[in-house]
């Protein structure tokens, strides 16, 4: 086990020579600026320096680097574009950041089997573009899809706005090639739709947050590209009406591709950035999209517009064309970053509840924000119960940060009480390490530790993430 | 919830950072605005927009990385050293990241501050390089010297540039850059032609406005004809055009290189010159200069009088595309049956938000077939003097750009900035397309289409 000391990632001159001989001098970085640039990801507040950054170019290089690291007990932190929001790629124990963005080739789009095989460093939106060019469709679309890599999406089991109808990353990963810390290169799954040969290692690796091994190749499942899509925006004078609309749409057995929710503050900042002319005097809006054959899309959109009106929407508008709809959705994707216009630090969470509890959760978040006197905006993937309560704060104000922590603590507990989860799509990483046992129990944590031990006996793979090393840590805020 | 772990405490900096100014150990003030730096919540939305990140895949070569490094310097976790300098100057300053940034981080001004901090630091420890001294202190502040340089360049071109560059030894300093740029630069106006310029050109129809043309320094030498074309277009659209005396370089290159004091001197000179000219609008045709000219009021913090005069100047400032698109439509005498594409000037698109106007103007030319280019608003790698100081990176970015240019199958690439124009000309040569393609300033192209066939 690693102590908290900085020495865990120490790289001697000899080890550096070994690593450089594997990846080449150009792909080994350890100057102060380079290390600093890999000391953070998209998670606020967390920061810690690695001892080196390597950018391997082949599976052989990955295996060789891992062998060296394993021999010398140096932590290895696999990384894509560093857009995760749970501190998953922060080198908290130092060590080697393994940047996988040179694995950026799409090897094959198999139109007979409806699969694509690619390197983990391919940017998600590039995969979208490539498969859509031949009439195919890869649904997972996390907010950061223009930046994030498919490997990163896999490691965090990223969700997105189309999760409601199409599911999330785990539903599209058919096979992987991965490297264990020992340097052993293994494969799991492949192009087969049905495959029950042994434990499902593929599923285990999805969402493993780089704590088990390094993914070097991915085979994903594709769908036929839907014929058309249409977007609807509904505006409300109060939040709960919007939340109830979502519950009623699902209960009336319509599954749209997307139902997104934004509150007033979020609408305002998004409008500042995208200049859409949203009615920012409204308290909340829903952004609903349906895709599929023309007649079905038209019918569903009309039905949902009717439900929205009945549940108290002050205004319902159907986008004139696909471009207008795409603009609205793109603006929604920028919501989190746009919120940082308000205060210097934005802390976002992804507590998720069963859809029937959405209105209740929205009310609870409002109550909790009031109780702790913190500013919380809420937006999110309302259709799958996945909310993003986001707190606008200032990391320099330690007293306020403490109240923020208390507010989120209560939000997580509320989500669990309503039958929800502490994290719908961002992962545990470091940010939710202290809450995992509340959800999975001590037995669950113990089993996870044993799984981790089987893959990574020396605990070099992304230590300090997902599986708590020690007993449950107390909530700690430094004064 | 994001707890602050034990280990990062020392790295997250002192608890009581002042909002704007940070004291450094030697008592000097770093001018970083910590609120602006913290506004970057490192989401990474800027990464795909950044040309140097696309080329290198390195975080330190991305806007998010550079802002993190600035934060490191502001918090004194990183020194202001050669590595930091190299990272700050590897940036093109194209500001595509500002367009991509949902949080509205003013990256351009953060970069200017960072470079200012670097130059400040160097001045206290060493003499600036002779190239910097000559270019920034001895040349750009003096319009007459710039004109003299123009005459020299004309003479050089007339007598054979290559041999002179070889004789003066300049070729040794920027060997490949000079050689390639020479091939690309156009015909320089002779001193006799320049003497013929009228001080005022009268509107050709009912006069709507009096416009002062900001001629620029390099622009007026290497692209004298483009300035003349711009003036002709404005007169045809109903403007009296005044070539305002005593104007100087806009100062953009100085600001981008951390030379704030010199930049302010130039700005004051220009503000005074155009105050005296008493015009309705000030118009320029170089996107890079225009962005700086429109930001003059940000250069006078703590000087309210000059800030107000600067703001009056800024309020009159228009890019030529911007004003021409608003004026009554020009009538074109000559159809141009060509396929054409447009390369955005970064500082026109990202700096000034002017994207539609040049495209609209081009589409008004009869006979033209317009083809939009993929990533048209991504930098071509020219970036002021970047293609001299970072020749290799500049050419990598240019070659990537030319792939997109080729896809358009255009015969003409139009641009709105002299640097981009030179760079695109060079790109055409590098791609071996000189027989099929031509790079032209939008103003020259519009002017070409104005002239009737027999003119």
UniProtKB/TrEMBL annotation, chain A:
Give the matching PROSITE patterns.
FAD_PCMH
- Highest taxon of the lineage: Bacteria
Q: Which GO terms of the molecular function aspect are on file?
A: FAD binding; oxidoreductase activity
Q: Which cofactors?
A: FAD
Pfam families, alphabetically? Answer: FAD-oxidase_C, FAD_binding_4
Q: What SUPFAM superfamilies is this protein classified in? A: FAD-binding/transporter-associated domain-like (SSF56176), FAD-linked oxidases, C-terminal domain (SSF55103)
Q: Which residues form the FAD-binding PCMH-type domain?
A: 46-225
Q: Could you tell me the keywords of this UniProt record?
A: FAD, Flavoprotein, Oxidoreductase
What family name appears in the similarity comment?
Belongs to the FAD-binding oxidoreductase/transferase type 4 family.
PANTHER family reported for this sequence? GLYCOLATE OXIDASE SUBUNIT GLCD
Protein name per Swiss-Prot or TrEMBL? Glycolate oxidase
Tell me which species this is from: Lihuaxuella thermophila
Automatic annotation (TrEMBL), chain B:
Q: Which reaction does it catalyse?
A: (R)-lactate + A = pyruvate + AH2; glycolate + A = glyoxylate + AH2
GO molecular function annotations of the record: 4 iron, 4 sulfur cluster binding; glycolate dehydrogenase activity; metal ion binding
Q: Which domain of life is it from?
A: Bacteria
Q: What is its EC number?
A: 1.1.99.14
The cofactor note from the UniProt entry for this protein is: Binds 2 [4Fe-4S] clusters.
Catalytic EC class: oxidoreductase
InterPro entries registered for this protein in UniProt: 4Fe4S_Fe-S-bd, 4Fe4S_Fe_S_CS, Cys_rich_dom, Glc_ox_4Fe-4S, Helical_ferredxn
Q: Which UniProt keywords apply?
A: 4Fe-4S, Electron transport, Iron, Iron-sulfur, Metal-binding, Repeat, Transport
The yes or no answer to whether the keyword Transcription regulation is present is no
Entry cofactors: [4Fe-4S] cluster
Q: Where is the 4Fe-4S ferredoxin-type domain?
A: 30-60, 82-111
Q: Which SUPFAM superfamilies match?
A: alpha-helical ferredoxin
Task: Answer whether the UniProt record assigns the keyword Iron to this protein.
Answer: yes
- Pfam families the UniProt entry points to: CCG (PF02754), Fer4_8 (PF13183)
- PROSITE patterns reported for this sequence: 4FE4S_FER_1 (PS00198), 4FE4S_FER_2 (PS51379)
Biological function = Component of a complex that catalyzes the oxidation of glycolate to glyoxylate.
Protein name, entry field: Glycolate oxidase iron-sulfur subunit
- Organism source for this protein? Lihuaxuella thermophila
Classification lineage: Bacteria, Bacillati, Bacillota, Bacilli, Bacillales
